[in-house]
Amino acid sequence: MENFALKPASPERRVLEKRLAEFLDERGLKIDDVLGETDQGFGEPALAVASGSVLAGFGNRRSDLDLLVIVENDKLTRFPIQSHEHGTLIDVNIRQASAVREHTARLRDSPWPRFESVTQDAWNHRRRTLKTTTRLALGLPLAVTEPWDSWHAGLREPWLAQAVVQWWTVEAHRLGRAARLLQDDRPMVAVARAREAVVAALNARAAAAGQLYFTEKWVGEKLKAVGDHAGLTALRSVLEPPLPPGDRVARCLGLVEEFTAPVAPLHSVLRWATGVGTALLDDRTVVDRWQLRALEVRRTDLPAAGTEDVLWSGPPDADPPEDIQRLFTHDMLWLGVATPDEEVSG
Amino acid sequence: MRTGPGSDAPVQEPLPDLRRLMAFRAHGAVRLLLKCGAALEDVEGAVSAGQSEVAVLMAHDLVQLSLSVRGLRTSGELSFAAEQASFDPFEGVPAEDVEEGLRLAAAGLEAIAADRGEEWLERLRSHLRVTEQQLDYARPLPDVRSGKGLMKGYKLARTWSPQMRRLGLPDVMPSNWTQRND
């Protein structure tokens, strides 16, 4: 992945200023209106960046402007703040400076994906961090204090492009793996997952061609922006209804291979999903999710619910034991993929 | 009301399981007003800009989420995080409704190309209305994309949160409204 050829993606300041100006003009707003929103009473902004699909060049009439504001304040939640004066036109996101610095450094410096770090929480956290970091990197700085200007410039180095391509590549393989595990018992779900795998692969391809904007739904516009006609044709083919599902999963998995750069084999890692409980009853374990759905497994050696223990891991072409696979197809397990480590045989 | 075999005596429907009922009514409503509402807005914006692939991709999301709300009534899964690769949005939904939903989402490619995007959008809105009718609330759910609607939705979620806690069900309040910032 490190050797993957990446095209430079840093947008020019004048392009960003033009996109912002057009957005504001069309809505009768001024740049001072946006600057006024940087102070939400959480502290002086260390860095304020206008961002989102509008700045990425994909905005439409329903798009709002994202304003990311970094402050030195450790008592924040992610509750979205809507501009009081400008309705839903400006979404203000206040971010904690120390957390942004720390998470970005981890994104840049820590090897990924590893067995120990592919829990559901960690996966979700990495997705959010990539979204925030790319928005900051690709957006237009409106207010900046030392040393955040040099920190912001560091986001436009090749490491971020590599991290984005890697994320979508790994995600494509993970979703493809899920589709394969689901296709016998839940063919319609397998097809939906396979479509998502192709969308992830195409996002990786667009990122490698310079489209780093993270949000996956824009994949069609990203492919158009880089003139990727083959990618666009593939996208349109997986948006067709999979009726009957037939060989759709196999065709999608073929597209994933075609559109992603080769990666080291990623092993499957299965852990308990959120909300799972377990109860031992004589010769069996009753596994439930939120105490709403339950499944009996005739074994008593499963890890306790609530732990991050691995139930099973294995290479790409291996299937888990039948009872572990059943737990997966009934949505009781979380599937991650990671570079190989000591396997858990299940 | 049904009658039993060999008898004219009415057979009572069994009372629903409390946790399932609350999951459907409360989590289903929040999923519909937050997630489906946002997806519909994405589709509307993309149609107006002629971004047909964005529109149809998000329509697939919209239909899957809408169907998953209906499935919550019987056997659908409560958690539907994007990173959960085994989530089945069609669980508890009749096969013909799944097929109809998939055809509806995909029809956007042709509809937008033929300048019939608005007609297609109305069919998507209708899909959401059917789902909302199944939730069976007397008043329409608030539109959380407006400032006023967001506060109404927030109030609704806050009112339901203690009920979820009592039953040990996850909070209806979106986690990104309550978790520490990152």
Task: Describe the SSE topology.
The complex is a heterodimer of chains A (about 350) and B (about 180).
Chain A: H1 13-26, H2 31-36, E1 45-51, H3 53-56, E2 65-71, E3 81-82, E4 90-96, H4 97-109, H5 120-138, E5 140-144, H6 148-154, H7 158-182, H8 187-208, H9 219-225, H10 229-239, H11 248-259, E6 267-272, E7 276-281, E8 284-289, E9 293-297, E10 310-314, H12 322-329, E11 333-338
Parallel strand pairs in A: 2-4
Antiparallel strand pairs in A: 1-2, 1-5, 3-4, 6-10, 6-11, 7-8, 8-9
Chain B: E1 2-3, E2 10-11, H1 18-48, H2 52-71, H3 95-106, H4 108-113, H5 117-135, H6 147-167, H7 175-178
Antiparallel strand pairs in B: 1-2
Helix pairs in contact in B: 1-2, 1-5, 1-6, 2-3, 2-5
Report what the structure shows.
The complex is a heterodimer of chains A (346) and B (182). Chain A has helices spanning 13-26, 31-36, 53-56, 97-109, 120-138, 148-154, 158-182, 187-208, 219-225, 229-239, 248-259, 322-329; strands spanning 45-51, 65-71, 81-82, 90-96, 140-144, 267-272, 276-281, 284-289, 293-297, 310-314, 333-338. Chain A is of the alpha+beta class and 346 residues long. Chain A has three domains: 13-156, Beta Polymerase, domain 2, CATH 3.30.460; 161-259; 267-338, no CATH class. In chain A, the strands form three sheets. In chain A, strands 3-4-2-1-5 form a five-stranded mixed sheet. In chain A, strands 10-6-11 form a three-stranded antiparallel sheet. In chain A, strands 7-8-9 form a three-stranded antiparallel sheet, with no helix packed on it. Chain A is globular, with a radius of gyration of 22 Å. Chain B is mostly helical and 182 residues long. Chain B has one domain (17-166). Helices cover 62% and strands 2% of the residues of chain B. In chain B, helix 1 (18-48) packs antiparallel against helix 6 (147-167), helix 2 (52-71) runs antiparallel to helix 3 and helix 2 (52-71) packs parallel to helix 5 (117-135). The N and C termini of chain B lie far apart (53 Å). The chains are: A alpha+beta (346), B mainly alpha (182).
